[in-house]
Automatic annotation (TrEMBL):
<dbReference type="InterPro" id="IPR002332">
    <property type="entry name" value="N-reg_PII_urydylation_site"/>
</dbReference>
<comment type="subunit">
    <text>Homotrimer.</text>
</comment>
<dbReference type="GO" id="GO:0005524">
    <property type="term" value="F:ATP binding"/>
</dbReference>
<dbReference type="Pfam" id="PF00543">
    <property type="entry name" value="P-II"/>
</dbReference>
<dbReference type="GO" id="GO:0006808">
    <property type="term" value="P:regulation of nitrogen utilization"/>
</dbReference>
<dbReference type="InterPro" id="IPR011322">
    <property type="entry name" value="N-reg_PII-like_a/b"/>
</dbReference>
<dbReference type="GO" id="GO:0005829">
    <property type="term" value="C:cytosol"/>
</dbReference>
<protein>
    <submittedName>
        <fullName>Nitrogen regulatory protein P-II</fullName>
    </submittedName>
</protein>
<keyword id="KW-0805">Transcription regulation</keyword>
<keyword id="KW-0547">Nucleotide-binding</keyword>
<keyword id="KW-0597">Phosphoprotein</keyword>
<dbReference type="InterPro" id="IPR017918">
    <property type="entry name" value="N-reg_PII_CS"/>
</dbReference>
<dbReference type="GO" id="GO:0030234">
    <property type="term" value="F:enzyme regulator activity"/>
</dbReference>
<keyword id="KW-0804">Transcription</keyword>
<dbReference type="InterPro" id="IPR015867">
    <property type="entry name" value="N-reg_PII/ATP_PRibTrfase_C"/>
</dbReference>
<comment type="similarity">
    <text>Belongs to the P(II) protein family.</text>
</comment>
<feature type="modified residue" description="O-UMP-tyrosine">
    <location>
        <position position="51"/>
    </location>
</feature>
Length: 112
């Protein structure tokens, strides 16, 4: 099993969720986060004063999938979250050792 973490622009969340649903992803965790990469933030104007916004609002998706679903999941995120502009985000894939459903005690892929 793999854990896919995707950091995307907030306005792309609904499109990405829909695309993931179409490829069979039943559940995910979504967190509102702030951060920056190469983008390094941007400047904004407020009441005539310019100020620096260092951390930009993003959305972090966490999805645990079977190994055979990883590429479909990544493709769905890439196709829907990509705007072609700086700050589109990142996708991280890591290995999951074990999953346990608290309610039933089911483990691994049965628990996902």
């Amino acid at each position: 099993m793999k854990k896919i973490e995707a950091i995307i622009k907030p306005f792309k969340l609904d499109d990405v969720r829909e695309a993931l649903s179409e490829v069979g992803i039943a559940g995910m965790t979504v967190t509102e986060v702030k951060g920056f990469g190469r983008q390094k933030g941007h400047t904004e104007l407020y009441r005539g004063a310019e100020y620096m916004v260092d951390f930009l609002p993003k959305v972090k998706l966490e999805i645990v999938v079977a190994d055979d679903q990883v590429e479909d999941c990544i493709d769905a995120i890439m196709e829907t979250a990509q705007t072609g502009k700086i700050g589109d985000g990142k996708i991280f894939v890591s290995t999951i050792e074990r999953v346990i459903r608290i309610r039933t005690g089911e483990e691994n892929e049965d628990a996902v």
